Model the fold of this input.
Amino acid sequence: MLGRIERDRAAAEKPKYVVFLGDLIDRGPDSCRVIERLRLYASKGVKPVFLFGNHEEAFLRVLGGDSALLADWLRYGGDACAASYGIDPARLLAELPQTALGQLQSAVPKAHIDFLQSFADSFRYGDYLFVHAGIRPGLSIEDQSPQDLRWIRDAFLHDTKDHGVIVVHGHTIVSEVEERVNRIGIDTGAYRTNRLTALGIEGRERWFLESRANPVDPQRSEG
Done:
């Protein structure tokens, strides 16, 4: 997908930003390599913007010592992330919590943690607001909580009111891109559908890019 974006960007008049909507990790087999690749991502004339997803939040909480979250994180895709750092997720579950956390903390480079901790929760560009999950309807952009920006679902998806911006989001998997008056959902569930989607915006024009890779586990739930 980065290659597709680069080729598309080359044709743009004033390329400025490439925004990553979060959930860059978990479920796929290469979380470690994805983080390293994006940590070093550089493209002339373009500023990358990285946004928190709920999976980055969970990963950082576990790395920060939240042993109560470990089993849930592994169950919802963290097992693949742990494996990408050379750790057997089954052994993590078999260990005492503090031992398991110590193994994980030792395996993840500080540079990766620092990179993930640098992520923002939202990014405003013109008439568009980019977030991972959505916003809480009725609240100003300034009053949105990280919890909602990373986790919200139904209250946002079912709301049809004008938010003052068009919200571009992921988090909730859709079979086809959802373009509504007040939001655009572009999470086509690459880990289980074989489709990764990006949105290009220039002035009033919008277009979509699609890349395909091998599906990982079509049985897992979204999130």
Observations:
- Residues 1-122+186-212 form one domain.
